[in-house]
C-alpha cells in the first residue's frame, strides 16, 4: 500500500492511536502533519517518523475552533503544497455519570471531539475542493458512540454524532470523489487503562509484550492493529468506500450497521395512547432493541 505524494493531517497524534495512524501513514509514503496540543509529544512523533525515513512536521493547535482547523490545513499546504487525507483523532475524556456531569466537562468533550471533527472536516473539504476533489476524510469514532457506555455522556454523544457526520458528508462529497468514513477503534491505550481489569493488559502492550491470542480474537490489541485500516481508507484502493463505520481492533475488522427501522405498523386514523397500550406488547415489544449488549469486544460490560 503506497501513499507516495499524498499529504495527511492527523489530529491528536502525540501518542496512542493518533501516533500509530501518523506513523503508519508516513511509512506508506505520505507526508504527515502531526497535530497535538502537547507540541513536545507531536515533535517526538515527528522525530520517530523522520528516524524511520518518513516526512512529517509538528503542529500544536488546540482542536475545536475554526481558527485551529484552518491553521492545521494551512500548515499542510505551506509545508507540502496540498492536503489529501484528514484523520480527526483528537479528543479528551471527562467521565462523569449524568447527575455528576458539569457543564464545563460536557462542553470540553463535545468541543474537542464533535466540534473539532466538524471544523477540521470542513476545512479539509474546502481544500479538497480547491484541488479538484478525491480527498479522504477519516473520522475517528468509538464503540462508546455505538452503544451504551456508562459514565460517558459527552463522549458517547460526540462519537455518535461523528458517525452521523460520516453519512451526511459522504452524501455531500460523493460527486467530488472525496470519501468519508468512520473508524471505530478498540485498542490498549492509556484511556482503556482506566477500565477495571484493563490496566495489566495496557502495561503489557506498553512494554511491547505480545497480547494473548484469545484477547486479540475478541477485538482488542495495540494501536498498530488499527493503523492498517486508516492507511487502507486513505489509499486509492479505497476510492469506492464511503459513508461507512468500520470497526478495527486486535485480529478483528467489522462493519457497523446504519440505523434503520426494525418494525412499522400503519393504523388508520393514527395511534392513540390506548391503541398503543393494546398493540405494544405483541406488535412492538418483541422488536425493542438492546441498549446495552451483553458484551463489547475486548471491553468489560458497562464501558
General description of the model:
There is one protein chain. The protein is 41% helix and 13% strand. It has 303 residues and is α/β, with parallel strands linked by helices. The chain has one domain: NAD(P)-binding Rossmann-like Domain (Rossmann fold, 3-Layer(aba) Sandwich), CATH 3.40.50. An eight-stranded mixed β-sheet has the order 3-2-1-4-5-6-7-8, with helices on both faces. Helix 1 (16-27) links the parallel strand 1 (7-10) and strand 2. Helix 4 (103-130) packs parallel to helix 5. The chain is globular, with a radius of gyration of 20 Å.
Return the CATH architecture.
Answer: 3-Layer(aba) Sandwich
CATH level-1 class:
Alpha Beta
- Give unreliable regions as ranges: 295-303
Order of secondary-structure elements: EHEHEHEHEHEHHHEEH
Organism: Geodermatophilus ruber
Protein name: NAD(P)-dependent dehydrogenase, short-chain alcohol dehydrogenase family
Family: Belongs to the short-chain dehydrogenases/reductases (SDR) family.
Pfam families: adh_short_C2
Amino acid at each position: 500500500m503506497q501513499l507516495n505524494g499524498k499529504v495527511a493531517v492527523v489530529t491528536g497524534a502525540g501518542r496512542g492511536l493518533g501516533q500509530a495512524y501518523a506513523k503508519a501513514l508516513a511509512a506508506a509514503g505520505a507526508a504527515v502533519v502531526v497535530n497535538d496540543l502537547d507540541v513536545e509529544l507531536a515533535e517526538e512523533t515527528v522525530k520517530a517518523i523522520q528516524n524511520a525515513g518518513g516526512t512529517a512536521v509538528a503542529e500544536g493547535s488546540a482542536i475545536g475552533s475554526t481558527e485551529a482547523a484552518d491553521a492545521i490545513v494551512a500548515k499542510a499546504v505551506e509545508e507540502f503544497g496540498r492536503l489529501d487525507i484528514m484523520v480527526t483523532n483528537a479528543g479528551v475524556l471527562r467521565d462523569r455519570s449524568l447527575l455528576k456531569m458539569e457543564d464545563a466537562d460536557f462542553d470540553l468533550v463535545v468541543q474537542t471531539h464533535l466540534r473539532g471533527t466538524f471544523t477540521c472536516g470542513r476545512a479539509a473539504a474546502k481544500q479538497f475542493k480547491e484541488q479538484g476533489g478525491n480527498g479522504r476524510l477519516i473520522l475517528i469514532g468509538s464503540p462508546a458512540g455505538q452503544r451504551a457506555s456508562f459514565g460517558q455522556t459527552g463522549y458517547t454523544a460526540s462519537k455518535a454524532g461523528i458517525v452521523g457526520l460520516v453519512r451526511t458528508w459522504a452524501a455531500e462529497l460523493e460527486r467530488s470523489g472525496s470519501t468519508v468514513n468512520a473508524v471505530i477503534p478498540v485498542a490498549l491505550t492509556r484511556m482503556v487503562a482506566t477500565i477495571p481489569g484493563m490496566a495489566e493488559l495496557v502495561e503489557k502492550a506498553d512494554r511491547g509484550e505480545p497480547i494473548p491470542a484469545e484477547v486479540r480474537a475478541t477485538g482488542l490489541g495495540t494501536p498498530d492493529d488499527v493503523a492498517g485500516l486508516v492507511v487502507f481508507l486513505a489509499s486509492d484502493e479505497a476510492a469506492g468506500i464511503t459513508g461507512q463505520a468500520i470497526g478495527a481492533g486486535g485480529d478483528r475488522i467489522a462493519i457497523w450497521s446504519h440505523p434503520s427501522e426494525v418494525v412499522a405498523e400503519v393504523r388508520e386514523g393514527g395511534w392513540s395512547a390506548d391503541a398503543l397500550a393494546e398493540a405494544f406488547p405483541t406488535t412492538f415489544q418483541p422488536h425493542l432493541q438492546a441498549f446495552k449488549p451483553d458484551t463489547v469486544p475486548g471491553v468489560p460490560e458497562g464501558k
